[in-house]
Amino acid sequence: MTATILNTIGNKQTAAHGDAWLNVLNPATGQCIARCPDSDEGDVESAVIAARKAFPHWSRLSNSERAGWLNKLADALEQNIESFALAETNNTGKPLALSRDTEMPRAVENLRFFAACASQFSSESHHGQAGWNVTTHSPLGIVACISPWNLPLYLFTWKIAPALAAGNCVIAKPSEITPMTAAMLGELAQKIGFPEGVLNIVHGLGHKVGQALVEHADVKAVSFTGSTAVGKKIAAHCGPALKKASLELGGKNPTIIFADAPRKNLIDTLIRSAFQNSGQICLCGSRILIEKSIYKEIRDAFVERAKHLRVGDPMDGKSQMGSMISKPHFDKVMSHIELARAEGGQLLCGGNAIAPSGRCEQGWFIAPTVFENLGPYTRSNQEEIFGPVVTLQAFEDETEAVALANASDYGLAASIWTGDIRRAHHVANAVECGIIWINTWLQRDLRTPFGGMKQSGLGREGGLDAMRFFTETKNICIDLG
Ligand code: NAD
Question: For the whole prediction, is pTM greater than 0.90?
Fold first, then answer.
């Protein structure tokens, strides 16, 4: 029997007003696990009405009261972490341990972190030269938070938490592919008595309900994470409307390994950065650049480990990788593997679909795949694949490493491996990415700015950047004459 999940509008669980539905699948089994509302602009209108009604009260609460609500939601989520992790895994095909031990705890942390931000975010004052200036940051009103399928609740909470902390009312649209945990969070908010109309969640298709949300005149800002193609559509609307937009988009991230790289944890981290969540993380390092003198050593050790990664049932504790998110995405990644072969890539491991026996035999699994012999301007090294497919390239020296790293339209993240702190600084400064890791990957301090350059986005999330995005800044100058 499949479950039915509903929109959360004004603290009520409702179907789409047109009574239309979308199937929600478990990609590890291919089975339908739920149906979710196929909402449209009428549902957006209902959510706007609820949010408009809620805004005066919510925005006037003290910061500590808003923080209190976020902490209450975090506590409730933490108490239910097992059921959320299970739902996330059933909806995404990612290993249960990844949902339970990494992503759900991070969702809790997002709520708590921005609860703390609510109480720490302050006005500034400047006095002296021209009177006494007080700079205030007030909530925008109703804001849209649109999130993708790869880290469903983790990225959903990363957006709604700062928006709420800053005093806005939210209309959030999770991916139609992975609506389960966001819907559960909506129910949980209702259960703990979250103020009505403050957190609204509408489910459905991007080009239908997502677009209606972006285009609604009462929606003052759009915080979007997803593909560059959709990000540009959103920018094309928000630009002329002079609507604030924060765009976290795709990546084709370089991992740069110098001969003096500390070997401790190197291969382990390379494997994680290439294949965690089956490579379906915007921050995954998909272009691995290795100094020539150690190319063979690193290649052989990396490929050996990749070959032995266990791909299979996400509910099996031994599985290190689960499935692709969907059949269309599986097809896309497989077509990129064919393209890499056609472009002259030398396949070092993987390259094939996997059909685990038992309940997952209809699921969409792909083996960890490594290619070499592909030039920097091949489509394989230019286009985001967003799967367990990486390429290896050799470089002669620092100059060539930087040139290869920057040979991309994207500029999200890079990791640099070296034992030389000066080189680390040089290269970090020269690489055109918004997030740089030295001798590590995916280590996150939530206070730091998060976002990409070039085709990877516009604006920054995290810490004060997020609080500033979700507020309007006003300067009040008082003449002390
Ligand atoms: P997507 O762009 O297809 O969809 C993202 C969200 O936007 C979904 O909720 C979708 O329904 C909605 N949407 C689609 N069309 C819309 C429209 N016209 N108007 C408004 N909303 C619309 O992306 P995806 O396939 O869900 O996610 C994968 C992409 O996300 C990859 O490119 C990945 O790199 C990127 N991503 C980026 C980051 C980051 O922080 N930079 C993080 C995670 C994922």
Answer: yes
